[in-house]
Structures are given as structure tokens and as C-alpha cells.
Amino acid sequence: MSKKLYDEIPSLNLEDFTNGTEETKAQFVKELGEAYNNIGFVAIKGHYLSNELSQKLYAAVEKFFNLSTEQKKAYEKEELAGQRGYTSKGKEQAKGHKVPDLKEFYQVGQFVPDDHELKKEYPDNLWPSEVPELAELAKDAYQKLEKTGFEMLRAIAIYLGLDENYFDSEVTYGNSILRAIHYPPIENPEDLPEDAVRAAQHGDINLITLLMGASADGLQVLRRDGEWIPITALPNQLVVNVGDMLARLTNDKLKSTIHRVVNPAKEQMKSSRYSIPFFMHPKSSMDLTCLDSCVDTDNPKKYEDMSAGEFLAERLAEIGLLKK
Ligand SMILES: O=C(O)CCC(=O)C(=O)O
Ligand SMILES: [Fe+2]
């Protein structure tokens, strides 16, 4: 097992896996596995989301967050508990953190055919009439990120010694979320509650997260030695990290690394930050019981058996986003 300390997250080219030779594919799997066994994050190029689409999506998202509070609140439905549509500031705090994050966000969920059995399990998406282009752009980005996620999970499956298509049926029409986040300008830093940050340190709940480059710096990951490492995705890169569900399934062989978004330096306090993570979830029925191959006397089983749906409900309650 590699014990190296990375100064930045490793960069890989997904085309080495999707469109390469047996050798480049094997090399990709090896480097990805090593990175996920160590820092839990990589940056990838050669994925399916174009720069043009991500820029158009950012523009639409910015237009939405620039609407008045009243207009935005029309898309905040209590019964959806933030799972679809808008969530205003002060609603979500990181697990174990008392002060809410300094952000508002908009969530888009799975696109299921009307006659599919999961149609009744997932709430319908909400679309703002003020930004008519958002629906199509968000759906396109959702599906491009999902397609990228399928390939990443195939590489992960091979690294784990599973069948390459192990995750495919679990994530087909999975409960994934595209979340557009706006971290508003910080007008009066001196009035902020102590501990209030853009996003307090946390691990992601899902299998993997795919994150297109944000509009500003601030994302940091916690390295094993306790150092915070800044992360930036280049314009053509996605940052892809391991979430808690995958860490659980692999008994922490793959690391769900703690990360956070810090407040900007004084000069940049007055500007907004936007980011759009895609949280790739399986269907709620997926069994997250630790894989036998990841449990031995040196690595005793750390987690009790649970389905993805049970785990998600537990975590949403902890961050203030569970339907009551
Ligand atoms: O805003 C970012 O860059 C990342 C946000 C994040 O980590 C999250 O929403 O889980
Ligand atoms: Fe996160």
C-alpha cells in the first residue's frame, strides 16, 4: 500500500480507460486505485462534460441565484426537504457542526421514465420559469456526469477485483443529485457567527462525487498528516472523490476524505462563489455491506450492514435535510 503524501491531487485521463489499450486501461485502474487508497481525490480530463455545457450551466445557475429571495422561495418546498428545487441559506450544516454553512443551493434529481417503478420513489424535479434554459442544461449535464461516473465506477470495480460492471445495475436510475451551490458575498465578516464557513469540513454521503471547476478557490482536502491541501480543477477537468457509501462498502480501503470550502481572503469577501457537484448515488436498495475481499484480520469490519437508502436517511437527518 502506498503511503505517499500528495501535494496536489493526482491528474488522470479517463480516455486511457474508455478509449485506450489494455495497458493504458490497467495503468489508469492502478493509478486511480492508488489515489483512492490514499488521498481519496483525483482530477480527470477526457470525460463527457464539455466546457461549453458547464459554462452555459453556470450562467443559468447564476441567473437563478440572482433572482429575488421571494422568487427563489417559490421553488423551496418544505415537503421536499431540499431534495429538489431551492434551499435557502441557513438550512444545512455539516455532520457534527452546529453552525449552518454560508450557502444556498438548488437540487436536480434523477430523470426516470414515467412507467418506471422508481418514478414514484423519486420526487419530480422543479424548474424555475424565470430561467427556462435551466431544465435542459441541467438534464444534459446530469446525464454527462452520470455517464462519466459509470466509467469511473467500472475502473473502481476492476481495482477492487469485482466484475467490471458490478456497479452498473446499482447506479442505473440511481438516486444521484446535481447540486448547484451559491456561496453569497460575505458583506460583514465581523458579524458572522464564529465557526461559520462556506462549507464546514465533511465527507460526502454518496458513492462518488464529480465536481466541475468552481468559480473561485476555496475547496481544500484534509491530508492524512493533518495538512489542508487546496484543490482546483482546471477548466477541462472534473474532480472526482470517494464518498462515504463507497468507503463503507470497501471497509475504508477507498478513502472518503474530509474536505471543506473556506471563506475567501478579505479582498474577495464581496464576491460570490458558485460550484456544481454531482453526487452519484445508487438506488436505495443497494446493499452497502462491507465486501468480503476488504475484510481480514488486519482490517476488521468497521461498519454494520446497511442499505444505501437506510444510510442516506441517517445522514440526511444529521445534516438537517430529512423529510419530517
Ligand atoms: O463547493 C465546493 O467546491 C464543494 C462543495 C462540497 O464539498 C459539497 O457540497 O459536498
Ligand atoms: Fe463535499
UniProtKB/TrEMBL annotation:
Origin superkingdom: Bacteria
Molecular function (Gene Ontology), one example: oxidoreductase activity
The cross-references to Pfam families, in alphabetical order and at most eight, read: 2OG-FeII_Oxy, DIOX_N
Q: Does the keyword Hydrolase apply?
A: no
Segments forming domain Fe2OG dioxygenase: 173-282
Keyword Membrane listed:
no
This protein's UniProt keywords: Iron, Metal-binding, Oxidoreductase
InterPro entries, from UniProt?
Answer: DIOX_N, IPNS-like_FE2OG_OXY, IPNS-like_sf, Oxoglu/Fe-dep_dioxygenase_dom
Q: What family name appears in the similarity comment?
A: Belongs to the iron/ascorbate-dependent oxidoreductase family.
Identification of the protein by name: 2OG-Fe(II) oxygenase
